[in-house]
Design a protein that fits this description.
With 238 residues, the protein is α+β, with helices and mostly antiparallel strands. The protein has a domain of 86 residues: Roll (Structural Genomics Hypothetical 15.5 Kd Protein In mrcA-pckA Intergenic Region, Chain A), CATH 3.10.290. The protein contains eight helices and five strands. 50% of the residues lie in helices and 7% in strands. It holds the Pfam family S4.
């Protein structure tokens, strides 16, 4: 029977069997080297790095850079989410104030506001306040912008003596809004109840409740809202 090499014999004794017989000098030397090698290997694996928050077996030279990049990435994502949320709330609030204007109509107004000189957000509000349905509501001819649109759709409103069926019509300074003759008395009765609740009259409108007419004097430059709207963020929201 062929004998095993001396190194393999000592390695087998080290890993599997505790030797009971005495070893010669060569066997004890090899076994001693194996023990020292095993102890050094165990010590290297169990040695902890200076910063225990990092991964145990990763190179320390790459850890600070990786951590800083991760922090920057998280901060950037949080900033993107907060910017998007503020823009979304501004867009939704502005749309609800003006009666949930259709997206296509709002985009057209935004494009017009960007083409004009001045602050884009203020110009957009000026254009929104120049709409026919908004002017009827500001003049207290209607309880809401939705009822103003119903009057326009049912051909009850005239602009410069011509019946208008477009609630998105933008008025120019000097335009006269009136009510068709056969609907004046009906609207007068509803206006009385509205006037008791709303006593504020816009300065840019000349209103005659006897003649049932509205004269658009000029486009407003500033409008007060009951809810907060970031005017600097309006042009970024669309």
């Amino acid at each position: 029977m062929q004998k095993k090499p001396l190194f393999k014999t000592c390695k087998h004794l080290f890993f599997h069997i505790r030797p009971t017989k005495k070893l010669n000098s060569k066997q004890s030397t090899i076994l001693k080297h194996l023990i020292l090698w095993k102890m050094a290997r165990i010590k290297k694996k169990t040695q902890l790095p200076l910063s225990p928050s990092f991964k145990l077996w990763q190179r320390s030279s790459t850890l600070p850079k990786t951590a800083s990049l991760h922090i920057k990435r998280v901060q950037k994502n949080e900033q993107k989410e907060s910017d998007y949320f503020s823009q979304f709330t501004t867009r939704q609030t502005l749309s609800s104030i003006y009666g949930n204007i259709q997206k296509k109509q709002m985009n057209n107004l935004v494009n017009q506001a960007f083409r004009r000189k001045g602050h884009a957000g203020s110009r957009l509000i000026t254009l929104l306040e120049s709409r026919l349905d908004v002017i009827l509501y500001r003049a207290s001819f209607c309880t809401s912008i939705f009822t103003a649109r119903q009057l326009i759709n049912h051909n009850k409103i005239m602009v410069n003596g011509i019946i208008s069926n477009s609630s998105a019509l933008l008025l120019s300074p000097g335009d006269i809004v009136s009510v068709v003759h056969n609907y004046e008395m009906t609207l007068k009765n509803s206006i009385k109840s509205i006037q008791k609740k709303n006593l504020n009259k816009p300065n840019y409108l000349e209103i005659s409740y006897n003649l049932m007419t509205i004269v658009f004097l000029y486009a407003p430059t500033y409008v007060f809202f009951q809810t907060y709207i970031d005017r600097d963020n309006i042009h970024k929201s669309f």
